[in-house]
Design brief:
Layout (H helix, E strand, L loop, with lengths): L18 E7 L2 E7 L7 H4 L3 H12 L8 E6 L6 E2 L4 E5 L14 H12 L15 H19 L1 H18 L22 H17 L1 H7 L1
Parallel strand pairs: 2-3, 3-5
Antiparallel strand pairs: 1-2, 4-5
Helix pairs in contact: 2-3, 3-4, 4-5, 4-6, 5-6, 6-7
């Protein structure tokens, strides 16, 4: 039962033949929904989930705000993942065996991105679609924050450089403001401006203000 208000676009239902792996963080129940053959790999598919919840709760000085947290794999999904309130949905590309995931950071970054949305995008959401970077830019930057915390600044900076290159390459001839009221189609807002540039701008702001003021501002 959802007793807290939340935006209707963050509602979803997933139906399937799932193995459900249970976990906890403090008093918050966690569930990992995967196809049965991946049951033993579920915690590797959604790595460090309790640790991320602890880290982001501390970074934001605001404990995870919802009564549960589930992560669900679906097939033929229209996008990579979606931050539905309390139940993130992911495409089947996330499902790999634990041995395959040893040298892969992609799952970590995607889990972090969607989890951070539970604060930025779900708890607080943008008033206008033109402000989408207030959702996606913050979620994008959470990938840097997590990598810096878990794997060190060098790994995080390597990721940041890739985000910068992705933005520069994609935005040639198509530059527009971060807050963009003149978009031609709602889907066009899911671009490297809303994601990459939004995250890069937050990193610039952090460096300008210093960590104490930046994180107090969050």
């Amino acid at each position: 039962k959802m007793e807290q208000p939340h935006a209707p676009y963050l509602f979803m239902i997933a139906v399937g033949d799932y193995a459900v792996v249970e976990d906890t963080w403090k008093n918050v129940p966690l569930q990992y929904y995967v196809e049965p053959e991946f049951e033993k790999d579920a915690k590797a598919i959604f790595p460090y989930t309790p640790e991320m919840l602890e880290f982001f709760s501390n970074v934001l000085n605001y404990p995870y705000p919802w009564p549960k947290f589930a992560q669900v794999v679906v097939r033929d999904y229209v996008s990579g993942a979606m931050e539905n309130t309390t139940a993130v949905v992911f495409g089947e590309f996330m499902q790999l065996k634990a041995r395959e995931l040893v040298d892969v950071l992609d799952n970590e970054k995607i889990v972090a991105h969607e989890m951070f949305h539970q604060w930025f995008g779900d708890l607080v959401t943008c008033e206008s679609w033109a402000n989408l970077t207030l959702n996606e830019g913050f979620a994008n930057y959470s990938e840097y924050l997590w990598l810096e915390h878990k794997h060190g600044k060098e790994e995080a900076d390597h990721h940041l450089q890739a985000e910068l290159e992705g933005y520069v390459y994609s935005s040639k001839g198509d530059a527009h403001p971060l807050i963009h009221y003149r978009y031609s189609d709602r889907e066009s807002m899911f671009d490297q401006h809303s994601y990459n540039k939004g995250g890069l701008t937050l990193h610039m702001l952090r460096r300008f203000l210093g960590d104490k003021a930046f994180f107090a501002g969050l």
